[in-house]
Amino acid sequence: MPRLGLRARVSTTVAVGALVLSAAVATLSYQFIRSSLVDERRNVVWRTAYYDASYVEARIGGPDTDYVEVLSSFNPGRGRTPVLVVAGTPYRLDVAGVDIPRNLAEMVEGGQAGRQVVRTEQGPAMIIGIPLSATTQYYEIVSLQELDNNLRQIGLVLTLVAGGVTLAGAGLGWYTGRRALRPLASVAEAAQGIAAGDLNARLDPQAEPDLQRLAASFNNMVDQLQQRIERDRRFAADVSHELRSPLQTLAAAAAVLERRQDHLDPRTADAARLVVEEVDRFQQLVTDLLEITRAESELDLSEVDVLALARDQCKRREIDPALVTVLDGEDATWLADARRVEQILGNLLENAERHGGGVVAVRLYQEGEHNVIEVDDDGPGVLPENRELIFRPFVRGSTAERRGDTDGAGLGLAIVARLAESHGGRATVLDRPGGGARFRVELSRRPQ
Amino acid sequence: MSGVLVIEDDDRIRRSLMMALEDEGYKVRGTATAEEGLAAHRAEPAEAVLVDLMLPGIDGFECVRQLRRDGDATIVVVSARDDTHDIVAALEAGADDYLVKPVAIKELSARMRAVRRRNRGGQASPSTIVVGDLEIRADAGEVRLRGEPVQLTRTEFLLLCELGAHAGQVLSRQQLLQRVWGYEFGDERLVDVHVGRLRQKIEDDTSSPRRLVTVRGLGYKLQR
Out of A248, A305, A338, whose CB is closest to B101? Predict the structure, then answer.
C-alpha cells in the first residue's frame, strides 16, 4: 500500500481530531437540549392533564352524563386527545385513536397516575393516565410530534455543524501542511540547482527557524560535495600539470635521440623511434587532458572574431579557408572565450580530416540564443546509436579503430562537448544532406 | 651577443633542453636561478633567453622584467603554467613569446630560427615613416611622438614599423605574427598583448585608440 503523503496525513489527523471533538460537543449539546426540552414538555403536559382531568371530573357527577359531550365541551388544544374510561368503556372524540396500553391502563385502574410514551402513526405521543374514581379514569394522549420535529431539527443542525467542523479541520490540516512544507520547496529547489551544476546554491538557515538544522546539514552536505568536486578537479589538473615537467625532459631528450638516430645501430634506432613516437602521443594526451580540465575553469570572455579564427585554423591544417562561411552577415564577432572557440574549431576540423574524409564546409551563424558552428565532412557519417557515444572520452572514429601512429587519444570530440557545455551550449552530430556527418556546436550568446 | 641562455631550475629539463638546442646548432648556456641567469646575461648578453616562471628566489616574471630593462634580448617564457593571466602577465613584463610545457623541440627551434632571422635581417621598410604626429625612424631604431622620443622594446618597435610601413592598411593578427615574430602560426594573444602595450605608449587614451585601431573581424591598422 502506498504510504500517504505528509500533507495527507496531517490533514487526516486534524480532520479526525475535529470530527471527534465536534461529534462529542454535538452529542453532549443534543443530550442536554433534549433532556431539558423533554422535561419542560413533560411538566407542561402533566399540569395540563391534571387541569383537564379536574374539569372533566367536575362534570361527570350525574348518572346520565353524556361523556362525549363533556369531552367535546372543552378544547384541549391541538395535538391533545382526551379519553375518558368509565367502568371499562372508553369514550373519546376521535373514532379510531390510539389504544391505551394495557400496563398503563392497569396501573391507572389501580389508582395511580401514570404516563407512557408510545409510537403512533402520527409520530410519538405521550399518554397520561389519571384515576378519577375507582371506575373512572381520565387519559390524555399528547402528540410529541412537534417536540420530536424540533429535536430532529436540532440534531440535524448539530450533525451538519459537526460535519462542517470536520471538513474545516481537513482543510486547515491541508493548508497547515502546505504552509509547513513550503520551506521544503526551497530545499528541493536548491537540490535541483545543485544537480544542474550550480554548486553555490545554499539555504538560508535564518529563513525558517524550525528547519535550521535541516538547512545547516544541507549546506554542510553541499559544502562537502563542492570541496570533493573541487579536490577531484584540482587533482586531475595537478596530475596533468605535474606530468608537464617530466614530459618536457622526455620531449627534449627524444628530440636528441631522433636527430641522432643515424648514428645508432638499427635496433637502438628502432627503439628510439618508438620512444619518440610515444612521447609525441603522450604529449598530445596530456595536452588534451589539460584542455578537458580547463573546461571547468571560468570563461575568459571577449569579442572574438570567429571567422578569422576559423580561417586561421583551416590554414594551419592546409584546409581551404574559403570553406568557412558566415550565413547571416559579413563577419562573426561573438562574445566568447577565444581559446575555447579556437580549440572547438581545431578539434572539429581535425576530426573531419582524420575520420570524416575531409572538411566540406564550415558554417557560422546565429540561431536564437545561440551562436552556431557547423562543420560538414565527407565521411561515412555517424550511426544514430553512436551519436552520443562519440562525445565521450576515449571513443575513436570508425575508420580508426586501430591505433595508428598519427591517431589521437580519442579526446578531441569529448573536449569539444565539454567546452561547448562550459560555454552554455552543446555539441551534437547530425547527417549532412547528401552524405557525411554534420557536427554542430551551439554556444550561448550570453555565456556566464 | 650570442647564443641561448636557459634559466630553468629543474636540472633534467635544463640539461635536456640544452642538449636538444645544442643539437640544433645553438651555443647554449644554462643556469638554475634567475640571479645566476641575470649575472650571466650581463657578463655576456645572449641572443635569446628561455625563462621558466617558477624559479627559486627571483621569480620568472621579475627575471623577465630585469632582462627587458637590461637589454634587447629576445625573451621566451617556457612555463608549465597555461593560465591566460600568467601568459598576459609574462608578456606584459616584457617577454616576446610564451610557450607552454611540454614544448616540442621542433617548435622551439622554429621560434629560435625566427628570432635569429629577425635579429639579423634588416627591415625592408623605408627608413623614416611619418604618420600624423608619430615619427618612426627604422634605421635609427627611434620613435618620436610629437617630437618626444618614445621608449619601445624591440618587439614593440618591429610591430610599429610593420604597421607603419602599411599605414592605412589592415594587417591581420596572423600576418603580424608572420612578419613581426616570424612565426608561421602562433598564439594571437601575443599580438593583442603587444598591441596593448604599444597603445599605452603612443595613445593618449588607450580605451579609445585613435592611432592604432582595431578593425573588427580583420586585425589592426595604423591610421594615416
Answer: A248
Residue range(s) defining the domain that contains residue A228: 210-291
Confidence (pLDDT) at A401: 42
Band the pLDDT of B217: cuts 50, 70, 90.
low
Query: Cβ contacts (< 8 Å) between B189 and chain A: which residues?
Result: 338
Give B76's contacts (C-beta < 8 A, 6+ positions apart): B48, B49, B50, B51, B95, B96, B97, B98, B99, B111, B115
> Does residue A201 fall inside a structural domain?
no
- In chain B, the residue whose alpha carbon lies closest to the alpha carbon of A251 is B104
Of A244, A300, A307, the CB nearest to B84: A300
Q: Mean pLDDT throughout A319-348? A: 89
- The enclosing domain of A249 has a CATH number of 1.10.287.130
> Based on the domain organization, do A218 and A340 belong to the same domain?
no
Question: Is the minimum CB–CB distance between A37 and chain B shorter than 8 Å?
Answer: no
What ipTM was assigned to the predicted interfaces of this complex?
0.77
Shortest CA gap A439–chain B (Å): 24
Contact residues, chain A, for B16 at CB < 8 Å: 248-253, 256
| Model confidence pLDDT, tens digit, residues B89-141 | 898 888 888 888 888 888 888 887 887 677 665 555 567 888 888 888 877 77
Mean pLDDT, all residues of chain A: 84
Q: Does domain B128-222 have CATH number 1.20.1640.10?
A: no
Q: Name which of B173, B176, B184 is nearest B217 in CA terms.
A: B173
How close, in Å, is residue B10 to chain A by CA atoms? 8
pLDDT tens-digit readout, B154-184: 788 889 988 988 888 999 888 898 888 887 7
A307 touches chain B (CB under 8 A): yes
The reported pTM is 0.59
Percent of chain A with pLDDT over 70: 95
The chain A residue lying nearest B13, using CA atoms, is A249
- Residue contact B16–A248, C-beta within 8 A: yes
Task: Please state, in angstroms and rounded to a whole number, the distance separating the CA atoms of residues A207 and A264.
Answer: 76
Chain B neighbors of A249, CB-CB under 8 A:
10, 12-13, 16
Distance from CA of A246 to the nearest CA of B (A): 7
The minimal CB distance from A247 to the residues B102, B105, B219 is found for B102
Interatomic CA distance for residues A410 and A398, integer angstroms: 11
Which contiguous run of DSSP H or E holds residue A310?
helix A306-316
Contact between B20 and A307 using a beta-carbon 8 Å cutoff: no
pLDDT band of A349, cuts 50, 70, 90: very high
* Contact (CB, 8 A) for B22 and B29: no
User: What would the pLDDT profile of B51-69 be if each residue is shown by its tens digit?
Assistant: 999 899 999 999 999 998 8
Categorize the per-residue pLDDT at A205 as very low, low, confident or very high, splitting at 50, 70 and 90. confident
Please count the CA atoms within 13 angstroms of the CA of B169 that sit on its side-chain side.
10
Cα gap A370→B10, rounded to integer Å:
46
Is A285 a member of any domain?
A: yes
Phi, psi of A204 (to 5 degrees): -90, 110
Does one domain contain both A258 and A326? no
Q: What pLDDT is stored for residue B187 in this prediction?
A: 77
A217-226: Cβ within 8 A, 24+ apart? A218/A187, A218/A190, A218/A191, A222/A190, A222/A194, A225/A194, A225/A199, A226/A199
* pLDDT at residue A397 is higher than 70: no
Residue A173 lies in a domain: no
